[in-house]
User: Which sequence fits this backbone?
């Protein structure tokens, strides 16, 4: 690789391979892990001296190419991991940007609080989560993570620190703009008060697409969380079948359930099998035949044993289901996988998502996992949410299917655009510049460009994704 001779003048930098969580693409760059704002400034200076661009990286949980850039200087924020203050009377937490969702819930739960919005994994950090403005299974009623933030500190490309609040228009651009405008270093955020460490959870199977959407409509005004799994192998009358869950915070005070140890996920499955080994079993099923069976088995068990049942589940077990299987992404090795999540207004969602599944089946490239969520719109610059639904899909990538898979994604993207839908950079690997221009529209694109020249006049903040999407440009 050219330029490898960049002097690592700072003792917290290494030359490394970096990639998104899906492991389907990667880059090599100089990765620095500053622990203080002054050290970030030093890295920015180093980048300028060496004519390198800067890629921001949190916990690396974005699936595609949003958190690395070949031959760049990567600023990995995860060593900025201090909780700066916690007020148990107001529920306001102040933390550095490397503090993770896990750090937050562990810190506040015993005092009767829970993060207002959490992702399907507890490992993203505040900087990365706000870079994408993540949502949870409560997006339809609580909005995105950024909607609960009271204040952020942000460094521009010249190393100047600014404090922004939701009263500043720029706040709504820095949060959501995928690390392309500034570096979030400190966050003040409102936690959500809870009485119990458990949720009441309702499970109900859906036999087809119609039932899926009816369940969301039935619970959208009277639940705290909703999510549904879809079997993408179901066709004909079984198309769209799956298992829906709604959940509620509990009203009765239950201090015991708020203890950290009540939340920890078990290290053994069925009492004897180490869950650290589970991905190896999953790998054996990680093909069309295996996954057709896994999806069928999940549907059958959900529509019989688990159907129409109310049960208690800990906040952690309900929220971070994917963390149950450590290293589950390794089941997709060697080619990795892409996650593909699109957002469609409610009046078009059923038509678009059912057609997306038909296209997958026609191409024999069914997603191994399908997840439906309900959303509401927000005011952030690169907002992905709509008054509608999202459908998240996982596609295995192999050398043989890569070209066909991207073609399929482009067909599915076209359906989303025609329906006035949106995309999400945290889950994107396949968009083209014209798709992004249409999704954001001329006004937002112009606003982004104006802010880019203000916050980052020399255009040093970039990612592999932003180059691919035409949001930044490789220097000639
Ligand atoms: C198993 C799993 C489940 C998930 N579930 C959900 C879900 O339910 N909902 C959801 O919304 N997402 C979900 N995601 C996606 C994930 O939450 C987002 O990609 C999130 O942005 C990851 O945070 P991170 O700390 O890993 O950031 P990274 O992926 O490292 O970076 C994310 C973006 O933020 C930028 N960035 C990093 N640090 C900063 C900073 N300090 N200042 C400004 N920008 C910065 C980066 O340049 C990048 O563009 C899931 C991911 C996984 C792997």
Assistant:
């Amino acid at each position: 690789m050219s330029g490898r001779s960049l002097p690592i003048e700072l003792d917290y930098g290494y030359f490394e391979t970096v990639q998104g969580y899906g492991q389907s693409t990667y880059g090599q760059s100089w990765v620095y892990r500053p622990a203080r704002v002054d050290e970030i400034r030093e890295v920015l200076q180093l980048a300028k001296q060496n004519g390198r661009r800067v890629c921001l990286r949190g916990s690396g949980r974005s699936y595609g190419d949003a958190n690395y850039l070949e031959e760049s200087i990567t600023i990995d924020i995860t060593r900025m991991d201090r909780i700066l203050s916690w007020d148990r009377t107001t529920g306001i937490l102040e933390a550095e940007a490397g503090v993770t969702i896990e750090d937050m819930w562990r810190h506040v739960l015993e005092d009767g609080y829970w993060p207002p919005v959490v992702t399907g994994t507890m490992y993203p950090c505040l900087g990365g989560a706000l870079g994408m403005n993540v949502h949870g299974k409560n997006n339809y009623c609580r909005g995105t993570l950024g909607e609960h933030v009271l204040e952020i500190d942000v460094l521009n490309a010249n190393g100047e620190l600014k404090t922004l609040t939701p009263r500043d228009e720029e706040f709504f651009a820095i949060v959501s703009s995928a690390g392309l405008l500034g570096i979030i270093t400190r966050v003040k955020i409102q936690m959500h008060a809870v009485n119990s460490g458990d949720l009441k959870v309702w499970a109900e199977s859906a036999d087809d697409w119609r039932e899926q959407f009816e369940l969301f409509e039935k619970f959208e005004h009277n639940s705290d969380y909703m999510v549904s799994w879809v079997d993408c192998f179901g066709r004909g009358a079984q198309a769209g079948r799956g298992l829906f869950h709604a959940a509620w915070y509990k009203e009765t005070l239950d201090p015991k359930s708020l203890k950290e140890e009540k939340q920890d996920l078990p290290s053994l499955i069925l009492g004897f099998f180490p869950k650290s080994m589970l991905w190896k079993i999953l790998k054996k099923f990680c093909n069309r035949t295996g996954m057709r069976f896994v999806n069928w088995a999940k549907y059958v068990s959900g529509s019989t044993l688990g159907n129409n049942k109310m049960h208690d589940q800990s906040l952690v077990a309900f929220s971070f289901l994917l963390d149950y299987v450590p290293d589950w992404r390794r089941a997709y090795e060697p080619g990795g996988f892409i996650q593909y999540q699109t957002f469609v207004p409610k009046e078009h969602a059923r038509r678009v998502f059912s057609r997306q599944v038909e296209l997958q089946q026609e191409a024999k490239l069914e997603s191994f996992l399908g997840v439906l969520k309900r959303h509401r719109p927000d005011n952030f610059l690169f907002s992905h949410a709509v008054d509608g639904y999202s459908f998240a899909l996982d596609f295995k990538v192999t050398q043989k299917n890569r070209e066909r898979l991207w073609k399929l994604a482009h067909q599915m993207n076209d359906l989303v655009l025609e329906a006035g839908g949106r995309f999400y950079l945290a889950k994107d690997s396949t968009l083209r510049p014209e798709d992004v221009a249409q999704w954001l529209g001329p006004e937002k694109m112009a606003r982004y460009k104006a802010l880019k020249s203000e916050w980052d006049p020399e255009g040093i903040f970039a990612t592999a994704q932003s180059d691919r999407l035409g949001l930044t440009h490789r220097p000639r």
In short: Residues 234 and 295 are 9 Å apart (CA to CA). The chain has a mean pLDDT of 95. The chain is about 30% helix and 25% strand.
